[in-house]
Structures are given as C-alpha cells and as structure tokens.
Design a protein that fits this description.
Elements (H helix, E strand, L loop, with lengths): L8 H4 L10 H4 L7 E2 L36 H15 L8 E4 L1 H13 L5 E6 L3 H9 L3 E6 L10 H9 L6 E7 L11 H13 L3 E5 L22 E6 H4 L8 E4 L2 H12 L7 H13 L1 H24 L9 E2 L11 H10 L3 E2 L1 E2 L10 E4 L5 H15 L2
Parallel strand pairs: 1-10, 3-4, 3-5, 5-6, 6-7
Antiparallel strand pairs: 2-8, 7-8, 9-12, 11-12
Helix pairs in contact: 3-10, 4-5, 4-9, 6-7, 11-13
Length: about 375
C-alpha cells in the first residue's frame, strides 16, 4: 500500500516513457533530426476538416462539452460508415466516441479487467496497451506472433500461440490488424480461428483496427462481424484522416457493454473534444475524409515500398511501420549502443523492447515526416545496418 511520498507500486513499476530517450545525445547534434520513432503523418487533415475551418457562427456551442458518449450526429455518421465498411449493420448505440483510440482502448481495458486479470496481447504490440493493463492493475501477457522465432505460419499455429499462454486468470485477448509495428495484416482464416477460439474460452476480444484504411496487399478483415457480442473494436480519426493532434477516436461494440465502458470514459476524460468531433463529422459526411485516405494510402504504399527496399525488408502489407531485426549490428552495448549510433546521426528510431520481448529490433515509421526527409532517414539507417 503506497504511503506518502510514494506513489502506487504498480504505477511506479511502469516505464515513464514508452520509447528509449536519447535526447541528451541530440543536444550536441547540429544537423537535421529525423524522427522515425513516432507513428504520425506529415500530411495535414483534409481541407474543410481542420480546426481553422470551424467557426462558432456555424457551430454554436462548439467549445462546450459534448455528451460523454459523443455527439449524436457523429455517432450516427460513424454507425453508417463502419456498417458500410464492415458489412455489419451498426446502430449509434453501438458507437462510443472517445478522446482518441488511446482513450477508447483504455476504457475497454479498464471495464473488462479486474486487478490480477490477464490479457493476452499479440506481440510485438503497440506499447501503450501493455501500460493500460498495468494501470488498471491487470497483467499484460505478450503472445509472440508477428516477429521473432515464434511467428505462426497457419491459423492452427496462431491459435496455439494464444492457447499456450491462456490461464484461469485470462479474460481477454488483444488483436491488432493492420499491425503496428510489423506492417503485417491478419489473414482472414487466422482472424476467424482466433475469434472462434476466444468464444470457446469465453474471452473478450479487443480489436485494434486503427490502420484499416491503410492496407496495401491482401484485405482488411473487420473482426466484429465474426462475433458481434464478443468483439469490441477501436478505430481512430487520428490515423484515418491525419488528425492525431485532435484526439478523437471511437469504439464499436455491444450497446450494453459500451454503456459500462462509458463509465470509465466519463470518470477519466469525460468526453472527446467537441471541435475534434465536429472536424471528424465533416470528414465523414463531406466525403473529404475518404478522398484523403485514398490519397494517403497511395503515398504511404509508395513510401513503404521504398523504405523496405532500402533496408532489404519485406514490403509492408499495411499500417505505416517496419520492424527490422538489427542484431547483426549490435556490439557489447546491445540495442542501447545502436540507438546511440542512430542519434549521433540525428536519427530517432523506437527500440524493440517498447513493443514486447524484442531486444534486437527497432520500429521505424515511414510517414512520420515529409517523404524526402523520411527517405534520407532510411538511407542513414541502411548505412548503419550495412545494407
């Protein structure tokens, strides 16, 4: 039990930063800094859907709170949008708007896990999902899946990877497709098998599909239609339409379950920013968002191919990341030494341990800065890797 001046031991045990910091080394660097470590985009949101396009005259009350579950108009638009994309009819009551997909996933974790419960997490994983489990006193259990020596090669092996780590304390599984950080896309047969196994084991499925607009090979499989009563899906306007700073995302799931999740949202962030919801609504209703995503998908695919070619890595099938193994270039300092060598060239990459048990990997984002700058960064990385 924490006592002044200590904080909770569970929180104290968490990392304060999800990425290794080499900021001090950059203080002596006078050249260009290339941030391949952040999952963002250089592109501005669609014209007409930016903060500068919103006015009080057109939107009276835009600086006030919205209902905790989100603006009714936006929930209706999202229900129509996701219903059309997934093929599953969706009602506004099955939609909850959140302060980004980060808040959406946090409410799901907080509502489904009791202290001591475990959640099986497809690894490598988006770093914040593990911290969310810890913040709500649950236990994240990495399931090696899309990188390293234990990569499944079939639906049966995919299910077995999760089955072998399931215990009596397991209450949910976390799936992510298109995948951050590997750039892989979950095959339909695998998705169906994993959701069916979760049903057999009476487990919840939390599905992170924020990169569903960015699939370059194969198809994106929406998981919720596979078991609408069990799957809770997180989506994001941040990724879909270049609105990361707006902090607006949403959950789609059973209405009764979302009513419980809303309690977490109400008592943490209360509601998503109202102007951000208005910008998201414009993106959906005007068609500008779909046009933006189509253009971004083409540009991202081109950059993904170019970045992969420079590193000699497989071309990403989706998302905006590569996750190369840099072990041949590690010295006695291990990954820290490699990160420092990158920083000494003005290059920032994300360390593999932020994504699970991957001490010899790094994650790089090929959309985090303008294309010319990103490709210069990949040239530096390729040189450091001897590729």
């Amino acid at each position: 039990m924490p006592r002044f001046p200590a904080s909770s031991p569970a929180i104290a045990a968490m990392s304060g930063s999800v990425y290794s910091s080499v900021a001090e080394r950059l203080r002596s660097w006078s050249g260009e800094v290339i941030p391949l470590n952040i999952g963002d985009t250089w592109m501005e949101p669609p014209e007409g859907c930016r903060m500068e396009d919103l006015t009080v005259a057109e939107h009276p009350g835009m600086h006030r709170y919205s209902p905790p579950a989100g603006l009714k108009e936006l929930r209706r638009a999202v229900a129509t949008h996701i219903g059309a994309r997934s093929g599953l009819a969706t009602s506004p009551d099955e939609v909850m708007i959140s302060a980004g997909a980060t808040a959406a996933l946090s409410t799901a974790v907080g509502a489904l896990l009791d202290p001591g419960d475990e959640m099986l997490i497809m690894a490598p994983y988006w770093p914040l999902i593990a911290g969310m489990c810890q913040a709500f006193r649950g236990t994240p259990v990495p399931v090696p899946f899309f990188a390293g020596p234990e990569v499944p090669t079939s639906a049966e092996e995919a299910v077995d990877a999760f089955r072998r780590r399931r215990t009596e304390r397991t209450v949910a599984i976390y799936l992510n497709t298109p995948h951050n950080p590997s750039g892989r896309v979950l095959p339909r047969e695998w998705a169906e098998a994993l959701v069916a196994w979760a049903a057999e084991e009476d487990l919840w499925v939390i599905s992170d599909e924020v990169y569903d607009e960015f699939v370059y090979a194969g198809e994106h499989v929406h998981l919720r239609p596979l078991d609408p009563a069990r799957v809770i899906t997180a989506q994001s306007f941040s990724k879909a339409y270049g609105m990361t700073g707006n902090r607006c995302g949403y959950l789609v799931g059973p209405a009764a379950t979302l009513a419980e999740l809303k309690k977490i949202g109400t008592h943490t962030y209360y509601c998503a920013p109202t102007p951000s919801q208005l910008a998201a609504l414009r993106a959906l209703e005007s068609g500008a968002g779909a046009d933006w995503a189509a253009h971004a998908r083409q540009r991202y695919a081109e950059l993904g191919r170019a970045a992969a070619a420079k590193l000699g890595e497989p071309v990403p099938a989706g998302s905006t990341f590569l996750f190369p193994d840099v072990s041949p270039q590690l010295d006695e300092r291990g990954l820290v030494g490699f990160l420092e060598r990158c920083a000494d060239r003005g290059l920032l990459v994300a360390p593999g341990p932020s994504f699970g048990p991957y001490p010899t990997h790094v994650r790089v984002c090929f959309t985090a800065a303008p294309p010319e700058q990103v490709l210069r960064g990949f040239d530096i990385l390729a040189e450091l890797l001897g590729r």
